[in-house]
Amino acid sequence: MLLAFVSNSGNDFQEDTVQAAAIRTLRPLPQPPGELETLFRAHHERVFRTAHRITGSPADAEDVLQTVFLRLVKGRETYDLRENPEAYLSRAAINASLDLMRSRSRAKSVGLSDVDAEGLESKFQSPETEHADRELQTLIRQAVTRLGKTAGEMFVLRYYEGYDNQEIAKMLDTSQMVVGVVLHRARTRLRKEIGHYLEKHHEKQ
Q1: Are 199 and 11 in contact (CB under 8 A)?
Q2: Structural domain containing residue 93
Q3: Mean pLDDT of 118-141
Q4: How far is it, in rounded angstroms, from Cα 138 to Cα 120?
Q5: Whether the Cβ atoms of residue 159 and residue 181 lie closer than 8 Å to each other
Q6: Residues contacting residue 84 through CB under 8 Å, at least 6 positions apart
Q7: What is the torsional sign of CA 99, 11, 4, 22?
Q8: Lowest-confidence range among 9-13, 18-22, 59-63, 79-83?
C-alpha cells in the first residue's frame, strides 16, 4: 500500500515565485469579471502549489495556473465552481497538471517527492540513497501519468492532496466503494510497475 503523500515541495521555492506567477497569469486575462478576479486572488496560491507538487516545476505550475483560470474565463463548468470553489480548483489543478505531464514524453523534473511504499520508508531516507530515491520518484511519477483519468485524479486527491475516500466520493459524485476499488487497483498497478526496481534496489542493501 502506498502511504499518503506528505510533500514539502510547496516550500522549496520563494513566495515571490508564486506572486510573480500570479501577476503574469492575471495580467493577460481578458478583463475577468470582478467575482473571478476575487476568486483568483483567493485561490491562485493553492492552485499553483498543487500543480508544483505534481509537476515539480515552477514554470509548469505557472502554465497550469494559467490554464485553469483561462478556462474559467471561457465560462466552463461554473456551476461546480460556485458550489465548492476549493474542491473544483483542486480537481482542475490536478487534471491540468496530469494532462501536461502526459503530453510530454521526456519530462525531466521530478514532482512526486516523499512517496514511500509500505515497509520501504527506511530504504530511502539516508543521504546515501538520495540518487535511488530520485529514481524511485521518477518511476512513480511516470506510473501515475499512465493511470486512467479517473484513477489518476483519485490517486492524486488521496495521496497528494490528503482527501479521504468519503471526500473524494463526494467530489466525484460516486460511492466510497468505487473510490476504494479504484485506489486499490491504482496502488496495485503502481506496485507492479515499480516492483522490478524495488527488488533490484533491495538486493543492493
Answers
A1: no
A2: 8-108
A3: 56
A4: 16
A5: no
A6: 171
A7: negative
A8: 9-13
Alpha helices per DSSP H over 56-175: 58-73, 78-83, 85-102, 130-145, 149-159, 165-171
∠ CA 82-83-86, nearest 5°, is 85
According to DSSP, the residues that pair with 2 across neighbouring strands are 117
Residues 76, 57: Cα–Cα separation, whole Å: 26
d(CA 97, CA 184) in angstroms, rounded, equals 22
Size of the chain in residues: 205
CA atoms of 26 and 37, how far apart (whole Å)? 8
Identify any residues that bridge with 189 across adjacent strands, giving them in sequence order.
Answer: none
- Does residue 6 or residue 154 have the better pLDDT? 154
Q: Are 31 and 69 part of one and the same domain?
A: yes
**Radius of gyration, alpha carbons of the chain:** 18
Q: Which of 68, 75, 111 is nearest to 92 (CA)?
A: 68
Residue given cell 486575462 in the structure block: 29
Q: Do 75 and 150 share a domain, yes or no?
A: no
pLDDT in tens, 165-180: 999 999 898 999 999 9
Question: Which CATH number fits the domain that encloses residue 199?
Answer: 1.10.10.10
Are residue 167 and residue 198 in the same domain, yes or no? yes
Report field, pTM of the whole predicted structure over 0.90: no
Confidence of residue 108 (pLDDT cuts 50, 70, 90): very low
DSSP state of 153: H
